[in-house]
Amino acid sequence: MPQPEQFTLKQRLLLALITASAWLLVRLVGPTLRYSVAVEAGGPAGGWIQPAVWVFWHRCIVPATWFFRGRRIGVMTSSSFDGEYIARIISKFGFEAVRGSSTRGGVRALLGMHTVIEDKRTAAFTIDGPKGPRYVAKPGPVLLARNTQTPLVAFHLAVERAWVLNSWDRLMIPKPFSRVSLHISRMMTVPKDADHEALARYHAEMQSALDRMRESAEKDFGQDSAPL
Length: 228
Description:
By secondary structure, the chain is of the alpha/beta class. Helix content is about 35%, strand content about 20%. It has a domain at about 5-30 and about 45-155 and about 190-200. The protein has helices at about 10-30, 60-65, 80-90, 105-120, 140-150, 195-220; strands at about 35-40, 50-55, 75, 95-100, 120-125, 150-160, 160-165, 170-175, 180-185. Strand 7 and strand 8 (about 170-175) form a beta hairpin. The protein is globular, with a radius of gyration of 17 Å. The model is unreliable at about 1-5 (pLDDT under 50).
């Protein structure tokens, strides 16, 4: 993980500003949001299970941060400048940032996620991060689910009214008093003996679950679920 002294003075100032501003925004808007939860048949009872591997799209990170706060969930976070401020922000809401990504420090991060599971907690992935392409799932969670023999669950949060950033992920920042629809998939199990071909099938199943949850959640607000 990058140490603070490895960032330039400008970056350190930006980190402090971004972290404080984002924390304040989520802390002010979060309590005004009205969440509804729909669980697919075969999904976790009550909408929650741990230990488990949970996956969702990067653009949902703001409403997800407020809804799942305080549960000591481990979230894989990129070892980059962007990952640093995300790690700082989510840590303030009771998450553990496990540093690394598909492009940098991936093996170290997966080992960290193993530790999260061994501690009987939830490991979560913003599955198209850190830089996309948007809505294309990476394979790490399938490997983690196989190796730890924990269920794999996909979810999506649709926001009725949001500011949408002009970023690669089209990040959603919910507007105050908006409704948020959380859709949670059925639990998927990856066998311990799954080989390369089987892993590819389970990866496709995970991608399908992510797409299905996005489409069903966005239909709650009459939104077009076609990729932006």
